[in-house]
Design a protein that fits this description.
206 residues, Lysozyme, globular
């Protein structure tokens, strides 16, 4: 029954706001500096895929799944490349990040929650003051993904790898099962199997 409820809630995710409010928690100077460094790293992105064939296969599979939500193919591929890069950079599963975005914003770039969380990964603005620069725009694709992935990695480190609790912190609902269960259900929808991509259309530039 609990699984059925989670599935039903997930189906309504595009019309409901599951974005919570990450809570500011005092952190040591060393942690703050590390997070700031991760956000400020301006090195140009390189390929986060192991090889060309993996890039083609993954991007083709995910692009087909995302097409109904983001019809523009070029923008869709740009977003997927950015998600894969920022997730991999933060030591996260890119499909987990896709599931989180699905639940948090329904892949709406300019989504704003009632608590003020912004963008694809629904990042709270206080993070800009804590670890970023005043010029950081949380509606900018890569900026939003960089913040979101860095914050989730931070929560995973705090919780010693406990994803359930880390997701609760991310959503500001620590201790309640609804949000972690929704993200896990969405994550399962984005799971990548190489054989599933065999007949998918090939993107022009991985």
């Amino acid at each position: 029954m609990r699984r059925l409820s989670a599935v039903l809630l997930l189906c309504l995710a595009p019309t409901l706001s599951w974005a919570g409010a990450q809570q500011y928690e005092p952190m040591s100077a060393s942690v703050r500096a590390a997070l700031s460094g991760a956000i400020a790293d301006k090195r140009p992105p390189t390929s986060s895929f192991k090889d060309y064939s993996e890039a083609v296969s993954w991007l083709s599979t995910m692009s087909a799944r995302l097409e109904k939500r983001i019809p523009n193919r070029e923008y869709r591929l740009e977003l997927l490349r950015a998600i894969h890069y920022e997730a991999t950079r933060a030591g996260l599963d890119p499909e987990l990040v896709l599931g989180l975005i699905q639940v948090e914003s329904g892949f709406r770039k300019y989504a704003v929650s009632s608590a003020g969380a912004r963008g694809y990964m629904q990042v709270m603005p206080f993070w800009v003051q804590v670890i970023g620069q005043p010029s950081d725009n949380l509606f900018h694709m890569r900026t939003n993904l960089r913040y979101g992935c860095t914050i989730l990695r931070h929560y995973l480190d705090i919780e010693k790898g406990d994803l359930y609790r880390a997701l609760g912190r991310y959503n500001g609902s620590l201790g309640r099962p609804e949000y972690p269960n929704l993200v896990r259900s969405a994550w399962n929808q984005w799971r990548y199997e190489r054989q599933l991509a065999m007949n998918a259309p090939t993107p022009s530039k991985p």
